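Bumping my old thread because nobody answered last time. Still need a sequence for this structure:
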């Protein structure tokens, strides 16, 4: 039986663990899938998608910097993708291109299931207001924290993201606010870094006072890109968590969208963690 073809598109993309994850999902679920990675040059995303579809591709994951372009390309999309205005998953079918954003549900599952930490009734800080933050804000609100603050270098960008999610926040009884980075109000149970501060060699953009004792501090990146934030969090008494679990969980949701089968994400995360930590 020939395998259905999928890939991840982005720039850069060479470092991506997604091919390994989806190959393992396929093995464990008996799904015949072939998953590669494609480096896409700036301005070439729509052409790259059209070419992959013409080659018989069934769908793709989308990473930086093309998630906003992916949303614009999708003829139909899920409500969470529409709210984020960004897609990390495209499915190609008879009706055209269908878009979703699985980043948020991936983060929520990693926090609530893998890290065994409830979001309901908690105080949560989301650092950043770019594509990464936009992709996770909706599912974080649906998890029902008591208060959620979006802090960004440009406060106006955070305010725009908050305004777009205001109705959803009211629906779930969440106090939602925007802030600049220097004047974040109060301390939090959970802090999520949605910026690329470590990757760019920058210091953590918020004061350590945002961390309550024993707070959970999550970086949406993993490996070297998360190291600075994780060291900062641990140094101030927080429980630090990188984005590897989020990566696997968002991939599992993409796989389910494509195949209609939910893969064993906990097993795959444990195997990938052993590889990344050099234990396999």
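Sorry it took so long. Here it is:
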């Amino acid at each position: 039986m020939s395998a259905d073809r999928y890939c991840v598109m982005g720039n850069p993309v060479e470092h991506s663990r997604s091919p390994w994850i989806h190959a393992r999902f396929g093995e464990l679920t008996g799904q015949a899938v072939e998953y590669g990675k494609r480096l896409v040059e700036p301005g070439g995303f729509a052409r790259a998608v059209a070419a992959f579809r013409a080659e018989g591709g069934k769908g793709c994951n989308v990473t930086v910097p093309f998630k906003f372009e992916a949303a614009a390309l999708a003829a139909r999309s899920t409500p969470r993708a529409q709210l984020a205005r960004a897609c990390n998953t495209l499915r190609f079918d008879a009706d055209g291109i269908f878009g979703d954003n699985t980043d948020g549900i991936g983060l929520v599952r990693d926090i609530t299931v893998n890290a065994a930490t409830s979001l309901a009734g908690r105080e949560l800080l989301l650092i950043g207001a770019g594509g990464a933050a936009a992709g996770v804000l909706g599912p974080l609100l649906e998890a029902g924290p008591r208060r959620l603050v979006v802090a960004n270098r440009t406060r106006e960008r955070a305010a725009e993201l908050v305004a777009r999610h205001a109705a959803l926040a009211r629906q779930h009884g969440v106090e939602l606010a925007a802030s600049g980075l220097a004047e974040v109000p109060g301390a939090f149970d959970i802090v999520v870094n949605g910026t690329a501060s470590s990757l760019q060699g920058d210091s953590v953009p918020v004061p350590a006072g945002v961390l309550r004792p024993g707070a959970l501090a999550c970086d949406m990146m993993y490996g070297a890109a998360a190291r600075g934030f994780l060291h900062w969090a641990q140094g101030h008494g927080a429980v630090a968590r990188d984005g590897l679990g989020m990566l696997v969980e968002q991939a599992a949701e993409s796989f389910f969208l494509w195949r209609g089968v939910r893969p064993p994400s906990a097993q795959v995360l444990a195997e990938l963690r052993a590889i990344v930590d050099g234990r396999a």
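The longest strand covers residues 211-219. Let me know if any region looks off to you.
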